[in-house]
Amino acid sequence: MPKVVPSDVVDLIDRTFPTAKIVPSMEVYPGNEGTLSAIVTLTNEIPTELITISGQDYSELVHGLAALKQTLTKWNQGRGGHAPLIDGKSPVFVVRAMLAKCPNQNPSPATAAMMFITDPALRDSIRIDLSTATSALHNGEWKASTVLAGAVVEALLLWAIQRDPTKLTAIATKPKGPPENWGLAGLLDVASALDLIKANTVAQARLATNFRNLIHPGRAQRTNEVCDKGTALTALAAAHLVVRDLS
């Protein structure tokens, strides 16, 4: 089943009811049953981790959906009339307004918290990538899972190395240029030298190094390597081991 995100429902509402964004009291009448049913169905299919609103906002979303369901039941029974307003606002307007506050991407609750990263934006970005890599694994999207998990390893190591750049002076040999240009292999060498991650983590992450580079079509063609469930599991295992060590 395709993944539904909040903006999908918002876009449907905007296409069908162009005034929904700017006219709170807009009305809907019999003849819009299909659209209202689609709004309710699609909203219920949005993953729970993407419904990030709470308190009054969440209550309004639930109220709006309940009003739409009530309206559909009334119309199916042959009773006409417009959908009931909620504090002077159409339930379609209410549902749209609440879903517009929700993101299309958010880490699943099972994704590691990574509270050791103090920058909230960076932390959320890495957690979203790890969550997406995990979802891709479950969906059989081996390349997406492999490459994203490798990106998570790379981002975590780069963060750990850049956190205290003075320690780099203690390393006799290191890759040329700034850390952001080192690539996963170079970052692993330095992270290992600095004892930022354990030996078994380094070994696991090295297995994922070549597969991380398969994001480049030319390399994939030259090496004749393909991603499969094994590469995805390898890369994800490396990502979780790095999170464990840095925690």
Would you write up a description of this structure?
The protein has about 250 residues and is mainly alpha-helical. It is built from ten helices and no strands. It starts with 5 loop residues before the first helix and ends with a helix. About 35% of the residues are buried. Residues about 220-225 have low confidence and may be disordered.
Draw up the topology in text.
Elements: H1 6-16, H2 33-45, H3 55-76, H4 91-99, H5 120-138, H6 142-163, H7 183-193, H8 199-212, H9 217-223, H10 229-246
Task: Give descriptors for this structure.
single chain; 247 residues; mainly alpha; Four Helix Bundle (Hemerythrin (Met), subunit A); 2 domains; 10 helices
Mean pLDDT: 86
CATH topology (level 3) name of the largest domain? Four Helix Bundle (Hemerythrin (Met), subunit A)
Distance linking N and C termini: 35 Å
Outline type = elongated
Give the SSE order as H and E letters: HHHHHHHHHH
Separate helix tally: 10
Using the coordinates above, name the CATH class of the largest domain: Mainly Alpha
| Count of the domains | 2
Instruction: Determine Rg (CA atoms, Å).
Output: 24 Å
- Per CATH, the superfamily of the largest domain is Nucleotidyltransferases  domain 2
